[in-house]
Amino acid sequence: MYYNILKFVYNPPLMRKIFVFICFIFAFTTNVMAKETTYTKELFDKALADGKVVVVSSWVKYCTSCASQMKVLDKAKNDFDNIEYFKFDVTNKEIAKFFNVQYQTTLLIFKDNKEVYRSIGETTKELIYDALKSVI
């Protein structure tokens, strides 16, 4: 009986499959947890009226690069003064049309009621911080 238990526990191919499954679940849940729409027209307009630099990023549920970029932007919100950060699901057609966004991982920066920066695709932390420094 103990032999059968040990044979199950010390089965490298089975353990490898279990490990991969656990890693997959962990990776998937950590990227999904950070994604929520925080954009509203009222909050966006208020931030612009208050003279803040407004950062808007788009994401989609299955996009891991979106989640990575959102983590950088969440950190940037704390690292820079006078920044407001909003995010939205690109499948929300009303918001996407308002910003003329057609792709996930689109990053927009607004200052003085004008769009001053736009990037499409995953952007590095350095490029994001350089863009923010250039408009502050």
What tags apply to this protein structure?
136 residues, alpha+beta, Glutaredoxin, 2 domains, 6 helices, 4 strands, 54% helix
Could you characterize the architecture of this molecule?
The chain is of the alpha+beta class and 136 residues long. It is built from 6 helices and 4 strands; from the N terminus they run αααβαβαββα. A 4-stranded mixed beta sheet has the order 2-1-3-4, sandwiched between helices. The radius of gyration is 21 Å and the shape is globular. The model has no long low-confidence stretch (mean pLDDT 82).
Rg result: 21 Å
Order of helices and strands: HHHEHEHEEH
* Overall CATH class of the largest domain: Alpha Beta
- Can you tell me the CATH architecture of the largest domain? 3-Layer(aba) Sandwich
Could you estimate the helical fraction of the residues in percent? 40-55%
How many DSSP-defined strands?
Answer: 4
Query: β content, as a range?
Result: 15-25%
Walk across the major sheet and give the strand order.
2-1-3-4
| pLDDT averaged over residues | 82
Low-confidence stretches: none
What's the CATH H-level homologous superfamily of the largest domain? Glutaredoxin
What is CATH's topology name of the largest domain? Glutaredoxin
